[in-house]
Amino acid sequence: MCEEIKITLTSSPKEKPVDETKLGFGKIFTDHMFMMDYSADKGWFDARIVPFAPIPVHPASTVFHYGTEIFEGLKAYRTVNGEIRMFRPMENIRRMNNSAERLCLPQLDEDFALKILDTIVELEKDWVPHSDGTSLYLRPFMYGNDPHLGVHAVHNATFVVICSPVGAYYAEGINPVKIAIESEDVRAVKGGTGYAKCGGNYAASLRAGEKAEKKGFTQVLWLDGVHRKYIEEVGSMNVMFKIDGEIVTPELTGSVLPGITRKSCVELLKSKGYKVSERLISIDELEEAAKSGKLEEAWGTGTAAVVSPIGWLSYKGQEFTVNNGVIGAVTQELYDTLTGIQWGKTEDTLGWCHKVC
Ligand code: COI
After folding, report:
1. 210 assigned to some structural domain
2. Which of 16, 61, 303, 346 has an alpha carbon within 20 to 30 A of 106's alpha carbon?
3. Does ligand 1 come within 6 angstroms of the Cβ of 219?
4. What are phi and psi of 281, to 5 degrees?
5. Contact yes or no for 99/70 (Cβ under 8 A)
6. Nearest CA to ligand 1 atom 3
7. Atom 6 of ligand 1: nearest residue by CA position
């Protein structure tokens, strides 16, 4: 197992973005990236931070042919006191190991993985943006790169962390998004890879996403792949609804991503005294609630999406407006509390923030 991280600094640092209102999501990258390699004989080796650059990969690598890839997403924030902090990084590291287990990729040592994140964030600290609503998005990913075409578990892999200063994920910002409930394609099934954060899940979602976008929707809400009945997730975020006073979110059945923002929101809402249920929610229940006026609010949760209000839902040609297409009181309260903790405006009583420097 690696213990040292060798750092090679870039000789040509890039200009940092001046207008932070135009950051968008994942379009700009910092000066450096972390890399380390794995082989079944040696374990992880050659941990290094190098100038950000394209990665040469063997054309026969398993990642290209059999989709042996997993990733994470977490953020570093510049707090109002000028500290740089990450939000619950150990949760991402543990989830990455769960994803690795599912795809037969190697495990990371949790403490060393945290050291990697600390080291790259500290090195790139001047890239953490200053404006409200911005952060440095960290994208750790791992891929198999055995250079031959047989289908089997990975013996060689690479782990990389890249960093990107970001603003809002959706063009709508904190304004409500339009979501199409998908009735044909499915994203995942129980026993598959739905709970793992792997590229293949996202590839499977693209066709429906494109179709929805052409019709003016921001994203797709998935139903379960077996009954085509139970609400699962949006793909870039988990979902929550306020139905007749109760906050409900789909339970983690194995085909839903166990979101860290989802978990944090459930914990925050419970601590505020809301009734929160993690349970199956059928499309019939949702439709009925929307028609009878009991669907009071809907929102998504995710690292990239943060807490994102849903203003419109469409299913098989019917369109439902949620809370008159404006952000609801609980959604706003949740957004303010969560981002307050992340940006250091609200006391972190739950100990979720990890100080880097
Ligand atoms: C995240 O929220 O970090 C995600 O990974 C979702 C998406 C950008 C793929």
Report:
1. yes
2. 303
3. no
4. -125, 120
5. yes
6. 73
7. 236
- With a 6 Å cutoff on the Cβ, whether 344 touches ligand 1 is no
What's the gap in Å between 288 CA and the centre of ligand 1? 30
pLDDT tens string 75-130: 999 999 999 999 999 999 999 999 999 999 999 999 999 999 999 999 999 999 99
pLDDT at site 170: 83
- Does ligand 1 come within 6 angstroms of the Cβ of 209? no
Q: Give CA angle at 73 (169, 189), nearest 5°.
A: 95
Q: Enter the pTM of the model.
A: 0.96
CB distance 300 to 335 below 8 Å: no
Place of tokens 């006391």: 347
- Among 130, 147, 166, identify where a domain stops: 166
Verify whether ligand 1 is closer than 6 Å to residue 302 (CB atom): yes
Give the residue whose CA is nearest to atom 9 of ligand 1: 236
Indicate the number of domains in the chain. Answer: 2
Binding site membership of 73 for ligand 1 (Cβ less than 6 Å): yes
The residue from 166, 193, 227 where one domain ends is 166
Confidence of residue 171 (pLDDT cuts 50, 70, 90): confident
Segment 14-30 mean pLDDT: 94
The string of DSSP letters for 75-114 reads EEEE-TTS-EEEESHHHHHHHHHHHHHHTTPPPPPHHHHH
The finding on whether 236 has its CB within 6 A of some atom of ligand 1 is yes
pLDDT at 142 over 70: yes
Say if ligand 1 is within 6 A of residue 303 CB: yes
Contact 266, 350 (CB under 8 A): no
Range of the domain at 28: 6-166
* Ligand 1 atom, smallest distance to 303 CA: 2
Centroid of ligand 1 to alpha carbon of 302 (angstroms) = 7
